[in-house]
Known about the structure:
Layout: H1 2-11, H2 24-33, E1 38-44, E2 55-70, E3 86-90, H3 95-107, E4 112-117, H4 120-128, E5 134-137, E6 149-152, E7 159-167, H5 175-189
Helix pairs in contact: 1-5
Amino acid sequence: LVPAILKLRESAPGVEPHVREMEYAEALRALRAGEVDVVLHERDEDTAPNIPRGQREIPILDEPWRLVIPSSFPTPTSLHDLADVRWVAPDPSTAAARALRRVAQALGVELQMRHTFFDFDIALTLVAAGDGPALLPALALQSGIPEGVEVVSLPGLGSRRIVARHRKSRHEPGAAVEALLEALVEEARGLELV
Length: 194
């Protein structure tokens, strides 16, 4: 988002985006009410979109889920190697939690949870401390992997999709929203994910 906004300042100097972090339900209410123009949100690959009439979603990025484990753990070769470990688990409302539930269902087990995180940096810190594995999107690993953490790609983890939702009518989206959406898509295309 931030690199896209910086490029937008150069390419469309009259457009002034304002970033506002909100809970998903609150963001959708604000979009319906016209208080915000675009909502960026995430979902796991198996979550079907529920797009109300008068709105449209643009896929911004599909990125793989990555398993992060403490370096002291044996490196798993399949998801089944993780059936009995205690996880550093994502907040239940997140796409990462839906992905982890999907993985548990595929394994036919109920996963054991040690901690619950919302922030990816917290998850990485807990994993580095040896408290268990976590499932994170590749984008969360872009700023670096702390010492004591190993990143593992395993089949069956799936992917996270980041989408931009906006109002769609005869008059919307306007030129400013179109410029922002184009900048987001362009920036996502240039990402090299871990």
